[in-house]
Amino acid sequence: MQDMVDTLIQYGYIVLFFYSLGGGMVGILAAGILCSQGKMEIGLCIFLAFLGNTLGSTLLFILGKYYKKDIMPYFKNHRRKLALATMKIKQYGMILLIVQKFIYGLKTFIPIAAGIAKYNFTKFAFINAFASLIWSIILGLAAYIFGHIIEEIFTQLGEYPYITPLFLLALAGIIWFYLAKFSKK
User: Fold this and answer.
1) 102 CB burial (10 A radius; 0-12, 13-18, 19+)
2) What is the 3-state secondary structure (H, E, C) of the chain?
3) Can you tell me whether residue 104 is helix, strand or coil?
4) Cα angle, residue 54 at apex, residues 110 and 29 outer, rounded to 5°
5) How many angstroms separate the CA atoms of 44 and 126, rounded?
6) What is the mean pLDDT of residues 26-38?
7) Over 60: is that where the pLDDT of 175 sits?
8) Distance between CA 72 and CA 70 in Å, rounded?
9) What is the DSSP code (8-state) at residue 160?
10) Helix and strand tally (H, E) in the chain?
11) Mean pLDDT, all residues of the chain
């Protein structure tokens, strides 16, 4: 176990950057907790999460805008969700681009939907960078500040190993219910 933690700390910055390309919420939270223990540097973690998240969302936007026909077969089971996201982008624009950073599961759909909706690239890039900065600062500092409390919670959960899978199952069910309900409209 200690070898795994040492490896994570050694390569943690690289892992955080690449993990942030696809979202990175869990990565920045884990990095914040490690920073609270003095094993990583919080400023560098926030910067790398910001950079990775900005780059990842921009690449998804480009995919949606310029390669729509190529990626649509991969979303054939999620067409309704993508259509809903496209409609909401046209309706709420900037607010949705900021809020989606904090909603796990929407981080992939919203930038692609913005590209499909032919959202202005310059405007998207600016809003995306701003939202990624806010996201990385808030989550990174929250995990850093509450790192010792979170560590204690995980220690307690370790004593009851059946709670974690139940919690993750309930969380997945809530996300699925949310996406299924709102994509039917």
Assistant:
1) middle
2) CHHHHHHHHHHHHHHHHHHHHCCCHHHHHHHHHHHHCCCCCHHHHHHHHHHHHHHHHHHHHHHHHHCHHHHHHHHHHHHHHHHHHHHHHHHHCHHHHHHHHHCCCCCCHHHHHHHHCCCCHHHHHHHHHHHHHHHHHHHHHHHHHCHHHHHHHHHHHHHCCCHHHHHHHHHHHHHHHHHHHHHCC
3) coil
4) 90
5) 21
6) 86
7) yes
8) 6
9) S
10) 10, 0
11) 82
Q: At which residue do the structure tokens 């390669």 appear?
A: 67
Q: Which of 81-90, 137-146, 175-184 has the lowest mean pLDDT?
A: 175-184
Q: Output the six-digit token pair for 43.
A: 């400023």
Angle between helices 79-92 and 109-116 (to 10 degrees): 70
pLDDT tens by residue, 96-120: 888 888 877 777 778 888 888 888 8
Alpha carbons 143 and 34: distance in angstroms, whole number: 9
Other CB atoms closer than 10 Å to residue 41's CB: what's the count?
14
Distance (Å) of CA 27 to CA 8, 37, 63, 68, 160: 11, 15, 24, 29, 24
Measure the N-to-C terminal CA separation of the chain; round to a whole number of Å. 47
